[in-house]
Amino acid sequence: MSEYALTEMLRYKRPEGSKTQLEFCKRFLEPTFGAPDRHGNYVFTVLEANGEHPVMCFTAHHDTVHRLDGYQDLVVEGDIVKAVDSNCLGADCTTGVWLVLGMIGAKVPGVYVVHAGEEVGCVGSRALVKDDPDWLYKVWSVVSFDRRGKDSIVTHQMGRRTASDTFAKSLAGVIGIPTLKPDNSGVYTDSNEYAQVVPECTNISVGYYGQHTSNESQDISYAYTLLEHLIKADWSEVVFERDETVEETEEDMFDSGWYEPQGQFRRDSNYSNLSELVRDYPEEIASLLEDWGVDAEYLWNQIGELSFSTDYRRVG
């Protein structure tokens, strides 16, 4: 288990480039990882018992979407932890960092990466992949711990396949938590940046809900259960099938269930006006908002605050 309490780590508010983010990294990451690379990413490798290089890579990110840095108070009710008077809890991705530290502490073989700047466009992971380190060609999978709920092993991100169903099913079996299953509705996280280099790239549910909102919460019991299973897992049983050099066709995208096969979605469309994008893809954007933890009540309240602040009168 991690020597640090998850709740203690959750006290740190860490917008990218903030003082508290630096303090968090120095306290929780650098004693294990040492100094970061030039992009702010932390990389550490635990070799196999026979000295061979591991084929699994496990990742998280050390920034959060807090508006301000500093420290926050928490309230714990049963197994659920929330922040007090904060725009988010930051379990996205503090829980992932905690899991990574716990696995390293238990000497689970793997390449471990805690990225910088995921919340501002995956800048750390994108820069790392561009640097083309040798270990990228020695791993067969990148597993991010950065997914809401308790049931997802992501196979698609933004409608593109990044992991095979065979891999996702085998990973679910290896981890051994019955709720985990293949999920083709992933949005975007650091593992997506590796998808053209590494065969199987996924994201696993870590038990948070309402991410990026003031209603964000973390199921602490699930996090501890997941860590126990990750430590006990027999990673040699994972099956790798996807060919990262093969581009998925539009037909494959439609078959995945992400888009309705009406031929309307164009990846090469160039939108500069947000209103036009919302007008043309309302269902897709609603799906993204739900995946980010934004529900109708929260969005309506935000619209109401905007209306009042601009002297409009909300009705209905």
Please provide a written account of the structure.
With 316 residues, the chain is of the alpha/beta class. It has two domains: 232 residues, Aminopeptidase (3-Layer(aba) Sandwich); 60 residues, no CATH class. 33% of the residues lie in helices and 19% in strands. It contains ten helices and 14 strands. An eight-stranded mixed β-sheet has the order 2-7-3-8-13-14-6-5. β5 and β6 form a beta hairpin. α3 packs parallel to α6. The C terminus is likely disordered.
How are the secondary structure elements laid out?
Elements lengths: L5 H4 L2 E2 L5 H15 L8 E5 L9 E6 L8 E2 L2 E4 L2 E4 L7 H15 L4 E6 L7 H9 L9 E8 L3 E3 L1 E2 L2 E2 L3 H11 L5 E3 L16 E10 L7 E3 H13 L17 H6 L18 H7 L1 H10 L4 H14 L7
Parallel strand pairs: 3-7, 3-8, 8-13, 9-12
Antiparallel strand pairs: 1-4, 2-7, 5-6, 6-14, 10-11, 13-14
